[in-house]
Structures are given as C-alpha cells and as structure tokens.
Amino acid sequence: MAQEDVFRKLVSHCKEYGFVFQSSEIYDGLAAVYDYGQMGVELKNNIKKYWWDSMVLLHENIVGIDSSIFMHPTIWKASGHVDAFNDPLIDNKESKKRYRADVLIEDYLAKLDDKVDKEVEKAAKRFGDKFDETMYRETNPRVVENISKRNEIHERFSKALNDNDLGELRQIIVDCEIACPVSGTRNWTDVRQFNLMFSTEMGATSDGALKVYLRPETAQGIFVNYLNVQKTGRMRIPFGIAQIGKAFRNEIVARQFIFRMREFEQMELQFFVKPGEEIEWYEHWKEVRMKWHQALGFGAENYRFHDHEKMSHYANAATDIEYQMPFGFKEVEGIHSRTDFDLKQHEKFSGKKMQYFDPELNKSYIPYVVETSIGVDRMFLSVIAASYCEETLEKGETRVVMKLPPALAPVKAAILPLVRKDGLPEKAREVMDELKFNFTCQYDEKDSIGRRYRRQDAIGTPYCVTIDHQTLEDNTVTIRERDSMEQKRVTIDLVEKEISAKTNMQSLLKKLI
After folding, report:
1. CA–CA dist 86, 382 (Å, integer)
2. Residue 189 in contact with residue 91, Cβ under 8 Å?
3. Across-strand partners of 479?
4. Domains in the chain: boundaries
5. Average pLDDT, whole number, for the chain?
6. pTM here?
7. By the 8 A CB rule, do 34 and 22 touch?
8. What is the per-residue pLDDT for 2?
9. Average pLDDT for 313-329
C-alpha cells in the first residue's frame, strides 16, 4: 500500500474512533489546530505519564515545574526569539502557496536518497546472496551519480543555512528544478524570514497595554525559575527540571496532520551541569532518550539520530531522534547542548545573578544545560502510525487493530456480557465495578461478541473480558488478548492481577533501568 494511502487511513481512523478531530470542524475548521477526542486524550495522557515518570520518578535529581504561558516580553528578547526565531519562506507565484525553503530542499534530498535505496533494493533481489551492497554503491553509475548529486546539494544547503544565505537557498531550489507541489510550476519569489511568535496585549487599556507573546517553547519558563527550584529543593549540580506544557508557533507551512501544528504540547527536560561536562552529559541523554523510545517495541530500525545541519545560536551540539513516519523519517525529539547561553542572557537582561554556588568547588558559576525536548503530538502520531495494522484472518476475514503498547492504550479492558439477558449484564456490571478502580475500562453489550471484539481492536484495547453462562456457574470469565486473539478462562478474582501485570506503567519503566 502506498505510504500516502496509509497516512490517509490513519487520519480517517483517528476521527472515526475518537482519537483526533479537526478543531472547530462545524465552522469548517481551523488550519493546523486539532482537538483530541475521548480516546486521543487518554492515549496522550498515558504518553505524558510515561515520559514524566521516566524523568521524575526514576531520577532522584530531576524535579518538575509548571510555568505560565504568559511571561515577561523581555524574556523572549533575551532568549533570541524576538530577533532570530524565523523560518525561511518562499512563495510560488502561480499557486500563491507558501513553503519553507529548507523543507523543500530537504524533501528533494530525501527523494535522491530514495532513488539510491530503490536501486540497491532491486540489485539485492537480482543478485541474491552474492550481492555486495558496498561495492554496488561505489560502482553502479546511476547510484554513484545520485549520491554525488545529493552530496553536492547537501554541502551547498548546509553552508547556506549556517551562513543564513537566503539567496543561495533560492538558487538551490532553482538549480534543482524543485516545483510547487500544487501548481507544478517553478515560478518562485525570493526567500525571506518570517517570525513565528504569536503576540497579544496584556492590560486594561489599549494605550497602556503591554505587548506579550504566547510562548513558542517551554524551556524559558524553566531557565527563569532554575534558581528558585535549586534553592527551595536544595538541588546540587547535576540536576534537572522537567516540564510538560503548551507552546504556540505561527507555522505558515503547517501540514501532515498533527505533525506540525500552531498549538502543540512539549515535554522538556533542562539538565544543569558543570561547565566542561556538557558534551559527556549530552551523549548520556542521547542514549537514555533513544532507549525510552525503543522500549515501546516499535523496532530499533525505525529510529535514528540526525545531527543538525545548522546549529542554533545557543547550542554547541544538537541532534534529533527521528522516527520513520508514513511520510519518511521525521523528528520526534531534539537533544541539545545549550551551553550557558540562556542563563547568561537572562542574567544580562534582568540584572539578576543566575550563578550557582558549588559547595564542592567552593565557587560560583553559571551552569551549562543539556536539553531533551519531545513533541507530545508528534510522539502521539508516531505511536498511532506504529500501532495501526490491517490483518487478514482465517476464511478471508479482515480486521483493523491498533497494536498499542498496553501501558499506553486508552482502554485497558473491555467488559462484555455474551448476551443481554439471563443475568449476564448484571454480573458484567459487578466485574466492571471492581476493575474500574484499577484501570480504564469500557462496558459494551451492543451487537454480536465478534463485532464488539473488532471495535475494541480498533481502539487498541489489550484485553476483552467476556462474561457468559459458565460465569454464573463457576465464577470464571474468558480473557481475550488483542494481538494474538488467544482466549483463556480465569476466575474473576484473578482478572485484575492478570490485566494489571501487562498494562501498568511499571511494565514499560522497568525496561529503562
């Protein structure tokens, strides 16, 4: 199935089963803004809990805060967002559509990579066990030509980004004959910078109002509070501050469902370390964060690190963890060594000391910071994409199943009376009333048992508990496992233990130790 078809099915599935809705849909929607439905909010909360517990619960030297969305506007001047938080944009004169110039070039480079990979795959099938991939990449004329072309463009692209050379970015687009996806033409404007922050006014009167910004990231709320947390919590370097919260960016090129939105949620850790130790901790957190992603069981081959072509103004090392979405490898998390830039800037602009007194060294210094920043919505999309599965069963029957990690599943167990009579609904309600204190359950008595199984498969429920006539005789129920569809009978008093063992968050967290 084409990747575009898979992605369309994902979007449709998310709406049909209450995961994600278009915001303000009855008013024709609002571009790049989405609402999470009844299943989506549960999955999203479970993802956030997995992250929060992996940070705060498993690390004695990491604590959490919740800073405000509105902050003093000078914070964003100090952080560089007022002057440097820009995207390079280019318009197509025929379609009137606006694009990020860097994304157009990245997509072009990805197509060259795909060409090479397809040539290699064809050759591997043709030559079988005798195939030498390294030699083929070095000697096949078409492969060598595409690799050489890709490397040349990549080198120009990297230099243009680092030099902030907007004219060269446009020239690369022209030289590569990159066309507008809508009009198919190459009639481009110049590339120009566009600031992404939303602004508003705070105050009772318009003439006395203060111009403030909706925060474009959550990190600055941590930086301006780091000494408050350090002193009140008696924290010693190295220590971290974690936060989950909303951020807002006026994305002009918002696309690919919830991958790039104007209102989104971040899970960020700022880890404060001694100057000179930041690269060591940067490597440490790269390893820790990759392990966190891979613990979900979606396949190590679907993740990779991608080092930044252009370093942000605050960083001396930066990489992304990318997951293979239906539309290619895309960033879900960024890991950055932010140096002491942010704290120094806030010291400069506020006039307040931001230094930490180190009792071991008996001196004060501004700590360096290592950041891990993960987009909740992108993480949500990667989980949905990895879990969506269409299966053909015996006798040609098909089913759509969301093979979500049980600990993240919105509903952990469905309680199903076999029929709506003979006292089975009443007995099922008793079971439901016992289990609902331990995990999210759903009661369903409508339609045949087979149809009810399929509904639960489609939302990713790991276990279905069926109450039948035998239940009334010996107090046993049937537990059906989602992925294998295997069934077994257990006594009612063991149901909670059976399901909790597989669905509680500990089952994931223990993989991280």
Report:
1. 26
2. yes
3. 465, 488
4. 1-73+196-392, 86-193, 404-512
5. 92
6. 0.84
7. yes
8. 57
9. 89
